[in-house]
Design a protein that fits this description.
The structure is a homodimer. By secondary structure, the first copy, chain A, is α+β, with helices and mostly antiparallel strands. Chain A folds into three domains: about 10-305, Glycoside hydrolase, family 65, N-terminal domain (Beta-galactosidase, Chain A, domain 5, Distorted Sandwich); about 345-680, Glycosyltransferase (Alpha/alpha barrel), CATH 1.50.10.10; about 725-765, no CATH class. In chain A, about 35% of the residues lie in helices and about 25% in strands. In chain A, strands 1, 2, 10, 11, 12, 13, 15, 16, 17, 18 and 21 form an eleven-stranded antiparallel beta sheet that branches. In chain A, strands 9-8-14-20-19 form a five-stranded antiparallel beta sheet, with no helix packed on it.
């Protein structure tokens, strides 16, 4: 828990430089444009503790796994988000003294993430031994529409004349701090200069995966109106632009660095050279000020659909904007090969890019804040990886087109390295099916079922049908050896959530097959042919679904998280000494596994997804039974609990959970923001507002609102995409005002009453 | 399954050289003397597939673990049996052609392990392009009483004159093939020659653990009566003795290599140089022939107590002698710091030296075949490591002197690297307590309880008392999250075996405390003081023991391996296609974990230990229920099942299991002998004879015999150590003849009838 970020509605601000907080700030102030991004590392050399990281969307490395004892079916590799060419580096020395904030204590240091405009800004003053005071002002951004472009501006002014040397460089000798065997993941790294274009370059490719990258940079330095000539040079894996000048007191040095980073995800390597030159040349011609304008416009377009305004609570306001900002700089939704890494471009932890977080948390966010294409691309990502999911299942011994989507992946192959997760945390398959339902329910894009969705549902239903077995003892179908969302338990039998979502998947797949058979017989025929699906198979899913076992305790009248849950020593979290929290830091894994403590919503995750299957009393009972044992040591926990707390009318708890989720990184609540921000849980924050406080649901193709604001909030205002409409929603006290700002006339259900919503006419309700 | 070893009662013989079998043979023909040993690698250079390994007792390396995701309480390192200086190397070339059996196909190749004398012998002929035929004859042994001494003799004869060059070397640049990060485990490796003594040497020490080693060698070469002069040289990490001579047809070259390998386990490093010179000098003075005599005598002393004679079944005969031989060359029992590595000196797999195999399998063997000191030393090993066992438990969150002995260890610290084993396979604690009971019951050394045993029992009972928890649901004490002996299940609740042995431990510890309080109040006082034991604590053990939960199914009338066992799909092993066996090779770990298949005795291990707690019908019921699902994919499985099969009168199955255990490595049944022999399971083989076919038990201080020989055996004859007596036992058909060959007059119970056994008078019964 930290509290050094200044509360401000549009900016993340750090005042004063504390090296102990630097790695946390490097995460928090990260910038990106969905294609590339990086941690808020300093441009100038810094010899203190830092985690240097520049990342390129889709570029990964299959690191050898660390497995104590390999067994059949273990994944072959653990894919790593790859630390790529460092393009921000600008070393500076003044009268021969290196500017290094680890050695020179800056004055008036401020680091600012301007979320409205997508800018990383920093300024400070240093004083040299001769009394010379130099002011530094840095601005950096990853251009939000020119996706390959990064831009840096530096301004320096001094109180005395001094000699400056500047070395603006590209560095290809970058390592992943989390490499399992300290390997260098790049090969064929070369560097040089296009002298005529005045551009230096570094070219390299990844070992094994062979991703090719070319980065080029052009730096321009001027004092007053005088352009300072530079010299280009290159060494092993590194290219540099050197400047030496006399900075006169009263004058300002202005440096601009234009960088293009190309990958073969988006460009033909044969054209790299031309494109890098033309991209940089176009940027130079446009000029810094105009590029900045484009950046501001680009972010304004995003905020227009996605912004949330909270009146009366600046901490909450800053929290939600930070979450939305980070999500949009991680993923823009224009490429179905990409997904949302758990740390986005803010760190390398957790390796691979795609977890079930995407389906369970991120898709609802993008559905509400962006074009349906974005969510559709996230679904297509999984559709494209269906053959790999079938392969994953085959590696474990499943057959006949059963699909097990990976827990962690880059290209569809499983690449986590713990059996208790890869083999067992299979509920992810359910979330992937649920996302199809969610997408169609929200967008109304029913065609997606026939074109893509049903094939995925069939693969998933087949998996579940093979994964259960008939228990002669229970006379029901059971599911043995799983890990639920609560990863503080491994290898349990009959995790209620997994059994429930598996059962739902089989029913949903069967229903959709039957529906499509009537609605579009030829489409269904084609799918049956392609997937070799028989009617017996569909009947079998229904049979299993109707005979599934769900652990239940009649004394407590609750479903049990798994068989034997009540054998545990049940001590509420409130009785744990604070000194033992978080338990994952203070307890052995042995103790955690055997304890009753729940890392994140497990049974309650099922209540969240399938709320209409349970009455209000069941919600209250299960929330009260499980929340008392929940330690929320996953970033994904507080958001679900906030939504459910709202649902059962516990608004105080809902607000408490909201603050925890929305400021998780800003306050470094889990003490791990130094590794990167919790990007996917940020989508959960958005859900606490939309599904929680605003009480938004989609039922039978209509939006429903049941808002209940926290007492601390004067009003809540936001835009929401829903089908053809964009709504402007303003909630204050008990009143709701909904404006259908674009799209055809429509209606919505507000507090249970259907309201006509003609275009542009605000409609109020209470 | 392989069948290339010639059946012979005293020898292991390989006729003809097949490179594909070489690594298996390297394991099978391993030699050692309890202090050092090595795989049957060729002395001459061999460029084919080989696993080179020379090992020194007690010298290990704490290799960094491979853990995908480190969690609190995981062991810091995985101790590795260390491949040490290669002292056997003797490179030979003939007229410039290297003798390398990967390139020159030998004729008349024979490799022989002479188990009676403890010799590795090998001979073959090679023919060169000029028609010259050279005969090679190798003999090698690790001297059984001069523990630091290794001896090699080579004889070469040629049909044509030829030039021989010989390079006899010591090589310190040796790696562990199973190093987790391809590290070199040695440091400060230097080499040189003591010119005056004609001895070359290599000195080195292990990284981290700092074990110091000095190896010295002196090679003597003579043709006829002519001694060939050599030259000494040394390079980096390697020292050599070179010989060059004209070998005349009709003459025999004789080479003798005397090697001393010293470690600081047994010698002061400051004296290494003197000792290595004096050891070698004494060996040279004694001469090869006399050393050979000593070797034969030394092994005769072992066989006198330990040999087993099986008439009418040479395969069975060879099997049991191979097992006994390997055990005695692995562990002699003269040093309580040593233990019995799972591969002995035959390979590096499984890392650390000590598993629960020692207590469950090896101690009964050494009790019956060697002085009680040997078993006592094995118990003292654990006694000395009690403080580390308490530390191990503390790392997991236990307190108050609770002791958790490690699953795998070198120095008492846990050093396996899978949580499902280290945290969970805690039944090992029970076996360690059981061994104390077993030792005292067998030897009558009741003083051991007060002097050492009880402290260990108290630590173990304390662990169990904290490891269980009260289940409000079951109104019993339960034990959650364990792995039983059947490692094909992980993280189960209420493994019956673990609950049973835990319960027994608590009862036994409490009984012994109460007994000692009466028998020797001051001793008990001292122990209570030292361990801060209260009477309430002892009462609590009894309370838990009396209220322990044991999973039971009343329909089948069997104890259940764990909660939920009957939820599995129960298909007998006999219904599995042969193509899917062994399942550990053919199935994913996911499929194995969820299956009903049992790797080794689990519930039945409890019936084996606590047989008197269950009636004959319960034995039969449980054997029949569980054996059908048992795949015996642990080397430790068939022996226990053989003993139990005998007990329930299923002699055919008992014999089938006997062959499987006794010839496990000779026939490479598990297809992994290439990695090393299964040393600890060899003690299980001995138990199948003593406890199985001979039906030997110790009850109330008396030996009981209830023999039942397999039909294939004409007779079974063996010696048995029991307390002050050595018995000679001859069983043939239904008759038993027992001779009390040394020690006072005594009695034994044969087939239920007590017989007086005066010294030296054979007593017959039937």
């Amino acid at each position: 828990m930290k509290d050094y970020i200044k509360i401000d509605p549009w900016n993340i601000i750090e005042e004063g430089f504390d090296p102990a907080l630097h790695k946390v700030s490097e995460s928090l102030f990260s910038i990106g444009n969905g294609r590339m991004g990086q941690r808020a590392n300093f441009e100038e050399s810094y010899s203190g503790k830092t985690l240097r990281g520049s990342y390129l969307a889709g570029v990964y490395y299959p690191d050898k796994t660390r497995v104590g004892w390999w067994k059949n079916g273990y994944p072959e590799y653990f894919a790593k988000v790859l630390n790529s060419v460092n393009w921000i580096g600008i070393d500076i020395s003044v009268d021969g003294v290196a500017v290094d904030l680890a050695h020179i204590q800056p004055k008036g240091f401020q680091r600012k993430l301007n979320m409205q405009h997508g800018l990383l800004e920093r300024h400070y003053t240093i004083e040299l031994q001769n009394g010379n005071q130099l002011q530094f002002k840095w601005t950096r951004f990853c251009h939000i529409t020119r996706k390959d472009l990064g831009v840096i501006r530096l301004e320096i002014a001094a109180t005395k004349d001094c000699e400056l040397t500047i070395n603006s460089y590209l560095d290809g000798a970058v390592y992943n701090q989390d490499s399992n065997y300290d390997e260098f993941f790049w090969e064929q790294t070369s560097a040089g200069a296009y002298e005529k274009a005045g551009v230096v370059w570094v070219r390299q490719q990844t070992r094994k995966t062979g991703f090719k990258v070319l980065a080029g940079a052009k730096t321009q330095v001027q004092q007053g109106s005088e352009m300072i000539p530079g010299t280009l040079s290159s060494g092993e894996m590194r290219a540099e632009e050197h400047y030496r000048l006399l900075l006169k007191s009263g004058q300002t040095l202005k440096l601009e660095k234009y960088v293009a980073v190309l990958t073969d995800m988006y460009h033909q390597p044969a054209q790299f050279e031309d494109i890098v030159k033309s991209t940089i040349s176009a940027a130079v011609d446009t000029g810094f000020e105009q590029l900045l304008e484009e950046q501001i416009h680009g972010w304004a377009d995003i905020w227009k659909q996605a912004d949330i305004l909270i009146e009366g609570d600046d901490a909450a306001q800053q929290g939600i904007r930070f979450n939305i900002f980070q999500l949009f700089q991680t993923y823009n939704g224009d490429d179905a090969r990409l997904n949302i890494g758990p740390k986005g471009f803010t760190g390398e932890k957790y390796g691979g890019s795609t977890y079930w977080d995407t389906e369970a948390y991120c898709i609802p966010f993008y559905l509400g804040t962006a074009s349906p294409e974005v969510s559709r691309n996230l679904l297509l990502y999984r559709y494209q990886q269906l053959p790999k999911a079938i392969e994953n299942a085959e590696k474990l011994g499943f057959s006949g087109g059963a699909a097990l989507y990976p827990m962690v992946t880059m290209n569809g192959e499983e690449c986590h390295n713990e059996w208790e997760i890869t083999f067992e945390e299979i509920h992810r398959n359910g979330a992937i099916a649920y996302a199809i339902y969610d997408y169609i329910n929200y967008t109304g894009d029913a065609d997606y079922m026939a074109s893509h969705g049903l094939e995925v549902l069939i693969g998933i239903a087949r998996f579940w049908a093979q994964r259960v077995n008939w228990s002669n003892d229970k006379k029901k179908f059971v599911m043995l050896g799983v890990t639920g969302p609560n990863e503080f338990e491994n290898n349990v039998n009959n995790n209620w959530y997994t059994n429930y979502i598996a059962s739902w998947c089989m029913r949903y797949a069967a229903e959709q097959c039957e529906w499509l058979k009537t609605a579009n017989p030829s489409a269904m025929n084609a799918i049956s042919g392609k997937t070799a699906l028989s009617t017996e198979e569909v009947s079998n899913w229904k049979h299993i679904q109707a005979n599934m076992y769900f652990p239940f305790d009649s004394d407590q009248n609750v479903f049990l998280q798994q068989d034997g849950f009540l054998d545990k020593e049940l001590i509420p979290v409130s009785d744990l000494p604070a000194s033992q929290r978080p338990i994952v830091e203070h307890w052995s894994w042995d103790r955690i596994l055997r304890s009753c403590y729940i890392k994140q919503a497990d049974v309650l995750q099922g209540f969240y997804f399938f709320e209409d299957d349970f009455d209000a009393d069941a919600h209250r009972r299960h929330f009260d039974f499980y929340e008392q044992y929940t330690v929320h040591e996953s970033s994904l926990s507080p958001c679900i609990h906030s939504i459910l707390a709202n649902k059962i009318g516990n608004h105080e708890k809902a607000y408490e959970f909201y603050l925890r989720t929305s400021r998780l990184d800003l306050n470094d609540i889990n003490n791990d923001t130094c590794d990167g921000c919790h990007i996917t849980s940020m989508a959960g924050t958005w859900m606490t507002i939309s599904k929680g406080f605003a009480g938004i649901r989609v039922k039978n193709g209509k939006l429903h609102f049941n808002p209940a604001l926290p007492n601390q909030w004067k009003s809540l205002t936001f835009n929401l995409r829903f089908r053809e409409n964009l709504f402007y929603i303003h909630i204050a006290g008990d009143g709701v005002q909904v404006t259908n700002t674009s799209g055809p006339d429509t209606s919505a259900v507000i507090n249970g009453i259907e309201k006509h919503l003609p275009q542009s006419n605000p409609v109020s309700a209470s």
